[in-house]
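From: lab user (bench 3)
To: helpdesk
Subject: output format question, protein + alpha-L-arabinofuranose

Hello, I'm new to running complex predictions and I'm not sure whether the block I got back is the full result or only part of it. Here's what I submitted:
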Amino acid sequence: MTTARIAIDRTAVVAPLNRRIFGSFVEHLGRCVYDGIYEPGHPTANEDGFRLDVVDLVKELGSSTIRYPGGNFVSGYRWEDGVGPKENRPVRRDLAWHSLESNQVGTDEFARWCKLTGSELMMAVNLGTRGIEAALDLLEYANHPSGTALSDQRIANGSPEPHDIKMWCLGNEMDGPWQTGYMTADDYGKLAARTAQAMKAADKDLELVVCGSSGSSMPTFGDWERTVLEHSYEHVDYISCHAYYQERKGDLGSFLASSLEMQYFIETVVATADHVGNKLRSKKKIKLSFDEWNIWYLEEHQASDEVNDEWNFAPRQLEDVYSVADAVVLGNLLITLLKNHDRVASASLAQLVNVIAPIMTEPGGGAWRQTTFFPFSVTSRLAKGEVLRPRIDVGTYNTEVYGAAPLVDAVATADAESGTSALFLVNRSQTESIEVTVDLASLDASSITEAVTLHDDDVYAKNTIDDRERVGLRELSGASLADGVLTVTLPPVSWSAVAFA
Ligand code: AHR
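Helpdesk reply: Thanks, we reran it on our side. This is the complete output you should expect:
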């Protein structure tokens, strides 16, 4: 059997765990909001029309920060449409997704939904069709306590307490020709800097995210980050990264190694940001907000005629159904985000419900977990304290896209307060189980409290509307701990977690 050795050094700390790494994303797109989190006629709906069965699953998923309301949607959004009496709210066309927006959910409702789910709202402002004034107005409406025109309007609309939103995105993917109002790096960098400067004049403690490239395959990747940051460096705190992965042309081996691309992406953005910082002689370090990441079968969507020519409310869009292989890759991407947590301080799995999502719903019916739900929820629940970078000694396999890829990847966390620790691992081999020996001596772990794996003999097994529990977590059999050494056997194409006390 193939073997691997991992050594965990308690002093090899990447960063203290910030729960913002477990963020997600709710966009007014398809059935994410309407018929997803919000369905007033549903048997589990509360007085705001929010489905409580979905709320329960969101809590179980363990997502922290939720980015809202887009995405591409935000670049045509008028936030004022979504506040005040619901019967007065206008129906608008959403050009980004070619659908109709009823505005029945807006800032106040979504802030209440975040409270229900125990999550933090991360708001995006429209820098596509709008600009500084609309951003400042929304900030005043959402965060100012009282006694101004817009804060009093919020109070009159039934939200007496300010929403106290700390993290704000300065537009979305402003380099993409698909974005309403897309711009050059120079134009966007100047606008972002001026918007950020004005928002911080209102509240210096805001945390602002400037748009990076909409993907590492954009022709301007790198140059975009450099130019935008040259304009905005001293006014912003984060630069965004967006990445979606998919299996292409049956090349599962390369797909399973997708996190190598994410690693390259992160290193490039960090190097570019630090280059600008050094050039500006700045003492500050820009953090990364990986605020869109996931598996997305985008090329299939683009090839299909799914985008309707009609104008409909909440059409079914981007409803990818995920396999075991997809979930293993997602678990590996989360391992990569954690390994880079010293710079990737915040991340959002895109998206949360129905739209490329871990949670699916049917109108009037149930809600269920996709395969990708499991690695996210377990990592979010078990990871605590500090993130540790393990040393991994393992062989490689050959991939078409990335060349040699290590067969195993892993990351660990340890929490001094509770005395618990956890290890998250993937086996990328399609054929071999791998016996892994892990030296945990520096962790003081005396027992295994949980050992689970996501694996199936059919790597393309999925949870579908007709078979909602086809795939789930299983016990990772045979895991044993003796004299500070853990031994586990990872099945092929699997994601696993082991927790210790
Ligand atoms: O998450 C789906 C879309 O992907 C978002 O709206 C956009 O920002 C990205 O291109």
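A quick orientation on your result: The CA atoms of residues 94 and 100 lie 6 Å apart. Let us know if anything else is unclear.
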